[in-house]
Amino acid sequence: MDAAEFRRRGKEMVDYVADYLENIEKRQVYPDVEPGYLRSLIPEEAPEEAESYEDVVKDIERVIMPGVTHWHSPYFYAYFPTAHSFPAMLADMLCGAIGCIGFSWAASPACTELETVMLDWLGKMLKLPEDFLAGTEGRGGGVIQGTASEATLIALLAARSKIVKLIQADHPDRSETDIISKLVAYSSDQAHSSVERAGLIGGVRMKKMPTDSKFSVRGAALQKVLEEDRAAGLIPFFFCATLGTTPSCAFDCITELGPICNAEKIWMHIDAAYAGSAFICPEFRPLLNGVEFADSFNFNPHKWLLVNFDCSFICHISSHLISLQHWQIPLGRRFRSLKMWFVFRMYGLKGLQAYIRKHVGLAKEFETLVRADQRFEISADVVLGLVCFRFKGSNELNETLLKRINRARKIHLVPCQLAGKFVLRFAVCARTTEREIRSENHIRPGQNGATSSRLTRSRRTLSRTPGSRAIGGKAYRRSLGQVCTMASEPQWSWMSQREPEGTVRHLSRKQVHLSQAKNSPYLLHHLGMRFHSPGLGPCLNRMSAPIFRCLGICTALNKMSLP
Known about the structure:
It is built from 16 helices and 16 strands.
């Protein structure tokens, strides 16, 4: 392929990518394939002779797309979001073209310096203490890691090295092996599995701290464990606080934990992989109060700041390291700061804040719908873009519900365990869930105490994310309104009109009235269900807030025996 063909093929690929993203809601969010599906679709060996570009592109749809989980689909509510945007994609293209291996300043001055400046930009967005910023004097600073897992491991290894040197300075006769055998690190029992893995790789004990009713580690609990471990001859040296835990987006109380760690000379690392992006919004910045006590801090812009994977930010106070090779496990590194530069400039701080606020607002709306029905419960505080909820009843019932939801492959959710309960996680993920819905939902008393509900047709606004600029054309034009009205479109014919005993009925837009017995569970109206199952209660009919329809919960509950 020469430059002329590259120009032509590049334009074709840009069109393919744009079409893919603009029409992603038409694809099944979760693939219907079995492990090993791909091997039978491609040869067992690489071709000896060159194949044409056309043949390769044809195989994208035949081989690759059938096995893709579409993380950027408006029907993807699993895990946490993974960010992407057109500016970041363009920057990644340039990064690939430059193709530098930026392990030192000499290897690529622009790569080294732009990364330093971008991380200072980011630190200032978060209003981090000056000690975390490189500035012009290089007092602190950070580096882009591939993932938060790498960042946590780096922090733990740095803390281990520091404590070994401190102890050997006072006790030169003690060997490194002896000291490491006594070291103990701590994290929340809600912390990500990568924290435990960091302890395994670092060869140190990792103790999980119990959490309170809010799934938060408190200062008193840490102080108690430290006293017990020191009395047992162990050496506490590292605590990983989590801001925005993976199961429920809970926050450890670092304003209590930080002073204890400082007094005990314990390295405190803060892992805010998901939640960290939200701290650019003033209303969420108080969640980071106490960061001044930390030795290191990391979060993933590739989760929520519209910067494509991989891009994980870690900073450390008062560091004097300049060569990036000393900040990471690998030697080589990509020019990842380019995509931050593109995104920060083309969205601006206000655009990024608007994006995060929109996601949080959608999560709050979902929470409101869940709380409106006594048959469902919220399992953890809804702080950002994650809602943990469950159907009141046994774990087995909720497991069955989730299996049916995912088996339908219309939307994708994942679970978690909270206080021994099986919980469903609803995470607002897709960039395309920019929602401008103008709707009126009327819930008013009917005759004889009955409840009536009428849904006026939702109207969606297809517009760009506030603050985005100059990507042009039809970029960013899909809204959550599309998701919320999708149920009434032809491709949603899987939503059955059947109504035998114990099944679900979905009504057309014209069938807008609900008149059933009083005390009909409000949430189940929103689920769009009609049940005749014994013991379930009043017959339910019609959805007045369309977001639940896209969840497919109505279909998942079909034929289930509910209490």
